[in-house]
Amino acid sequence: MGLLRLVLGDQLSAGIAALQDLDPARDVVLMAEVMGECTYVPHHKQKLVLVLSAMRHFAAELAARGVRLDYIRLDDPANTGTLTGEVARAMARHRPTGLVATFPGEWRVLEAMRGWEEALGLPVEIREDSRFLCPLPRFRRWAQGRRQLRMEFFYREMRRETGLLMDADAAPVGGQWNYDAENRRRLERGVVPPPPRRTPPDAVTREVMDLVESRFPANFGTLDAFAWPVTAEEAQAALEDFIAARLARFGDYQDAMASGEPVLFHALVSTSLNLGLLTPRACCEAAEAAFRAGRAPLNAVEGFIRQILGWREYVRGLYWLKMPDYAATNALEATRPLPWSWWGGETRMNCLKQVVRQTRDLAYAHHIQRLMVTGNFALLAGLDPAPVNEWYMAVYADAFEWVELPNTHGMALHADGGVIASKPYAASGAYINRMSDYCRGCAYDVKAATGPDACPMNALYWDFLARHERRFGGNPRLAMPLRALRAMPPAKREALRAQAAAFLAGPEMRPEA
Ligand code: FAD
Ligand code: SF4
Question: Count of CB atoms within 10 A of residue 66's CB?
Answer without folding.
Answer: 9
